[in-house]
Amino acid sequence: MSLQDWFYLGVICFLGACSPGPSLLVVLGFVSSEGKKAGISVSIGHGVGVFLYALLSTLGLGFLITHYSIVFTIVQIIGAIFLVWIGCKIAVSSFSPSTGSSSITYPKNNSRFLEGLLVAVLNPKIAIFFISLFSQFLSPDQTIVEHSAMALMAGGIDTIVYCAIVLLASTRNASILLKKYKIKISIIFAILLILLAFSLFLSLVL
Questions:
Q1: Helix, strand or coil for residue 95?
Q2: Closest CA to 20 of 86, 108, 112
Q3: Torsions phi, psi of 196, nearest 5?
Q4: Cα-atom radius of gyration of the chain, to the nearest Å?
């Protein structure tokens, strides 16, 4: 992949990790109920789960490239459209009332790392996201090393973003600031994701 492709991949992984959803609520819930250490453990576990999903996605799509090129092209087009849909959903959901962390039921387990891992693994939307995402960046000449690097980037970015959110949420001023500008931040992320998705889609059809 070109340097530009790696940059696009990193940006979309970052936007995906920052977008609001069940995983973010779980992480913030543990921070509020058990503190920063629990939040960091959950974040690392979630990042490992994302890495596993990302790696399986690249390997599966790599098989499609080699054996079913037409099917892979269709997956690419559907994937680009799905990324646009995710961006639109983020924009719409930013205006919805926030769901409090108290409404979430946490498993009774001492291993917060394991719980973070399960939150990612048991969320099929993450698999769909990475299949859609990686379908835009894979090519027949790529090796398993490149595929592993892509998955590692996805898992690493997810871990870093969630750990950063935990650290921010642990400070009162940052927490107030994030709540105050939640709608604006979500809309900015949504617009960037949609623009990048359109760029990838145009590169396929033109």
A1: coil
A2: 86
A3: -65, -40
A4: 17
Please give the helix or strand (H or E) that residue 196 lies within, else none.
helix 182-205
38-43 contacts: CB < 8 A, separation 24 or more? 38/112, 39/166, 39/169, 39/170, 40/163, 40/166, 41/111, 41/112, 41/113, 41/116, 42/112, 42/113, 42/115, 42/116, 42/119, 42/162, 43/116, 43/159, 43/162, 43/163, 43/165, 43/166
Nearest to 42 by CA among 86, 101, 98, 103: 101
Largest Cα separation within the chain, whole Å, is: 53
75-124 pLDDT per residue, tens: 667 767 766 776 676 677 667 655 444 344 444 445 778 878 887 877 66
Q: Tell me if 19 sits within 8 A of 126, measured CB to CB.
A: no
Q: What is the value of pTM for the model shown?
A: 0.67
β strands within 54-160, DSSP E? none
Q: What number of CA atoms fall less than 13 Å from residue 1's CA on the CB side?
A: 21
